[in-house]
Amino acid sequence: MHILVIGAAGMVGRKLTARLVSDQGLNGRPVEKMTLVDVIKPDHPDGFNGTVEALEVDVSEPGQAETLIASRPDVIFHLAAIVSGEAELDFEKGYRINLDGTRHLFDAIRLLNGEDGYKPRVVFTSSIAVVGAPLPFPIPDDFHLTPLTSYGTQKAICELLLADYSRRGFFDGIGIRLPTVCIRPGKPNKAASGFFSNILREPLIGQEAVLPVPEDVRHWHTSPRSAVGYLIHGATIDLERIGSRRSLSMPGVSATVGEQIEALRRVAGEKAVRLIRRKPDEMIMKMVAGWAPGFEAKRATELGFTAEQNFDEIIRVHIEDELGGQL
Amino acid sequence: MHILVIGAAGMVGRKLTARLVSDQGLNGRPVEKMTLVDVIKPDHPDGFNGTVEALEVDVSEPGQAETLIASRPDVIFHLAAIVSGEAELDFEKGYRINLDGTRHLFDAIRLLNGEDGYKPRVVFTSSIAVVGAPLPFPIPDDFHLTPLTSYGTQKAICELLLADYSRRGFFDGIGIRLPTVCIRPGKPNKAASGFFSNILREPLIGQEAVLPVPEDVRHWHTSPRSAVGYLIHGATIDLERIGSRRSLSMPGVSATVGEQIEALRRVAGEKAVRLIRRKPDEMIMKMVAGWAPGFEAKRATELGFTAEQNFDEIIRVHIEDELGGQL
Prior knowledge:
The structure is a homodimer. In chain A, 41% of the residues lie in helices and 17% in strands.
């Protein structure tokens, strides 16, 4: 089996690659080859016995998708995107990478499908940004898509393309609407949503973190481990069961910031909680007000997608996967 | 005021142009210039005192939209599209005309907006094909978009673009989801939906028509006159009231084929009804089963969009507008 990961150098891409290596296969079949692609050259994964091709490629550039697809990978994970904040600041770049890049990929597959019936599984990462305020809680699976950012618009458009290209039989597509990934490993970054991770990750290693919003802010989370789990499951399930609505809101943990902090207290004690410094930020508060508080994710749950049950579990996953299993 | 109509040679485009001429203006302002554009050269309208530019242009070709927009029209009606059946048969043409053509237009406006703040009203014709079965009756305004055709996918994508470009302030956009236009004037055509018009239009002039579906088939209709009315109203209403959801399901008449026939009987008598010949067509029956039975259209109604109340009225509009007012 040959797997192509586009966006392999990102956090989720690296964890997905590592999981494919440790699983030694996908859907009961051994993985002989992985093609890992990103705008910066992805690292070779440790411990993989098969062939690895690591390429520095921008799929939004004309012709690049065709080249990648020419070797006919069996499964394509398309994770490449620029993030919400950047897509909002640079309108043209957002549409070029997040929309045109995806469309080029889909069209390259369609043309090969027309030649010889090539029909890979395509797992596309969408986002909860496809919905926009006012939002109910929980948000039902069939809630209308009214994105309020260019990023969310681009993801919603790609969901529509994925559904149409799948309906026409060009590939077997599934869209995975990722919750906010928490706890993101690494250093604090400037993403407006970064604080959801920062207020747990930094105190867990004895460092201060800034909380810019009130404790009653509710949001929708999943661990990096579960995010990778959705992608693997999406690559293996029987798509006959999914019907014409190809993009699914994933299960996750809906929690207020206060609930996140209580979980931190239970897992790491009062001394960790004391490292959270309140510093209200009006701009972040305003942005967060339009974000999704949580989804029903009924269809995805019925289809066997799973996530953590609460934030204690999300924190423990972080301790296991990032901190060697202990504080 | 300068008005640009893209898709001016089509049935709705011609009626819109005629209405603008007979109104002698738009929103209380005189129309000095009309630019009429289509892939075949539109006719000059009768009785217009201002300047008319009639152009044979395909806006999906690179650079054409920029040229059209360079004269900075105040209002742009974008009606150009290839129809559902053709978009399904010719995948690439459908995406090129219905998606890329619209995006080129929107981008041409965006670039001028960046130069000097040019910000026209853009009235985009969408379609009830943006929703797909299973459908409730009536379909609420916030029903999720799950198009089951490439045409519906292209319209839904353009609705998302319209909303994002409007949100960013590049133009003032409004999307009008047209019901099936009935009674379409002219000759019977090969569109799968053609029979809805044929079974009324042909008997009204003493000719036979074929009915390929059972009488309990329910669908969603509006007259050509009301369709033009939506576009005019969409060009003039205060868009502050519309919020972030820029595309509206229009009011219309929900009727079964049996109810259409009863209306024909009331207006034109039994002899007209006797000209309808039943000839079941499995393929058309299957297609029609997925079509919209009717919409709530609550938001559009609150915003002042209006339609006929029943099919008697739709037939009378046809007699007035197409048959000189009498049978």
